[in-house]
């Protein structure tokens, strides 16, 4: 299959945001004309919207639009994964961009990301220097990044908005982790990247679909990408508790046998408390080890080999 040559291939997922997508594409087309960009290929992934095609027009002189509709609602991250796989199979782009359709990823920042990527010859992700959500959302977002760091040992300071090198796309679309979380999968791939500070834009129409529930799901899917690291850390943590409990029992028994300073009854309760802690740690270690070995024995599905099954 011959691939269509494109300088920039842009993947834009959307669900019931046709009005926003219209405005976004209008602005990208205008900016492409201003910066004398010949053609930008856009893969617009419709994540099973109520309307099959709500775009008013598809005639832009600087944009080549391809709309792919999913057979069911798969969620934001899997829509991105399918869009990237489609771009890999149908376009030979030097650069691959990913951005939302609602306007919170600003079109002018897309070109800033692209310019920095070309200068550095490296993938670039947008880092939000200012967020417009409420305090509760910001607190949970900070908590998500903290838990992600504790569980994976990696710091994540970026989301989906990015421009990556086209020759790195092959590694991503063959990575099963791409199904769960695009930025976390990229982070785990160990592909070189840099970040660019950007501000969060304002939605063109409607309201944001990201809420606390969506954020928790997004956070858990990101941590799931590093499941092997999380399981390993849980096993080590459980072993540390087991050793601490055994040490505590040994100290209590030694004091009871070798000294006269023991208070009647305290040794029994102390040993019982340490024994309960020991038993719980053993259960956690056993089940974590079982899950770890089970996951290692299963061959996960590569997105590039399965994505066509979800395109209508």
TrEMBL record:
<dbReference type="InterPro" id="IPR029044">
    <property type="entry name" value="Nucleotide-diphossugar_trans"/>
</dbReference>
<keyword id="KW-0328">Glycosyltransferase</keyword>
<protein>
    <submittedName>
        <fullName>Glycosyltransferase</fullName>
    </submittedName>
</protein>
<keyword id="KW-1133">Transmembrane helix</keyword>
<keyword id="KW-1003">Cell membrane</keyword>
<keyword id="KW-0808">Transferase</keyword>
<dbReference type="InterPro" id="IPR050256">
    <property type="entry name" value="Glycosyltransferase_2"/>
</dbReference>
<dbReference type="InterPro" id="IPR001173">
    <property type="entry name" value="Glyco_trans_2-like"/>
</dbReference>
<keyword id="KW-0812">Transmembrane</keyword>
<dbReference type="Pfam" id="PF00535">
    <property type="entry name" value="Glycos_transf_2"/>
</dbReference>
<keyword id="KW-0472">Membrane</keyword>
<feature type="domain" description="Glycosyltransferase 2-like">
    <location>
        <begin position="10"/>
        <end position="134"/>
    </location>
</feature>
<feature type="transmembrane region" description="Helical">
    <location>
        <begin position="271"/>
        <end position="293"/>
    </location>
</feature>
<feature type="transmembrane region" description="Helical">
    <location>
        <begin position="235"/>
        <end position="259"/>
    </location>
</feature>
<keyword id="KW-0448">Lipopolysaccharide biosynthesis</keyword>
């Amino acid at each position: 299959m011959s691939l269509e040559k494109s300088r920039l291939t842009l993947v834009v997922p959307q669900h019931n945001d046709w009005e926003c997508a219209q405005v976004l594409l209008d602005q990208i087309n205008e900016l492409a004309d201003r910066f004398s960009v010949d053609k930008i290929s856009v893969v617009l992934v419709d994540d099973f919207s109520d309307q099959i095609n709500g775009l008013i027009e598809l005639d832009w002189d600087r944009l080549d639009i391809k709309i792919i509709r999913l057979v069911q609602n798969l969620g934001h991250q899997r829509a991105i994964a399918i869009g990237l796989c489609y771009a890999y199979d149908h376009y030979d782009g030097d650069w691959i961009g990913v951005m939302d359709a609602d306007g919170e990823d600003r079109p002018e920042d897309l070109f800033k990301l692209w310019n920095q990527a070309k200068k550095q010859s490296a993938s670039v992700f947008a880092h939000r220097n200012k967020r417009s959500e409420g305090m509760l959302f910001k607190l949970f977002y900070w908590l998500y990044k903290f838990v992600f760091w504790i569980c994976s040992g990696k710091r994540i300071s970026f989301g989906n908005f990015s421009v990556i090198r086209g020759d790195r796309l092959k590694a991503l679309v063959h990575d099963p982790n791409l199904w769960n979380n695009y930025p976390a999968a990229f982070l785990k791939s160990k592909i070189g990247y840099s970040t660019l500070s950007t501000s969060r834009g304002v939605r063109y129409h409607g309201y944001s679909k990201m809420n606390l529930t969506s954020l928790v799901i997004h956070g858990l899917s990101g941590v799931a990408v590093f499941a092997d690291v999380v399981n390993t850390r849980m096993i080590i943590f459980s072993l540390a508790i087991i050793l601490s409990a055994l040490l505590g029992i040994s100290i209590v028994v030694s004091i009871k046998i070798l000294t006269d300073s023991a208070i009647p009854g305290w040794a029994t309760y102390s040993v019982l408390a340490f024994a309960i802690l020991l038993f719980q740690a053993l259960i956690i270690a056993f089940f974590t080890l079982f899950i770890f070995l089970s996951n290692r024995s299963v061959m996960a599905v590569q997105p590039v080999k399965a994505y066509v099954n979800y395109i209508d």
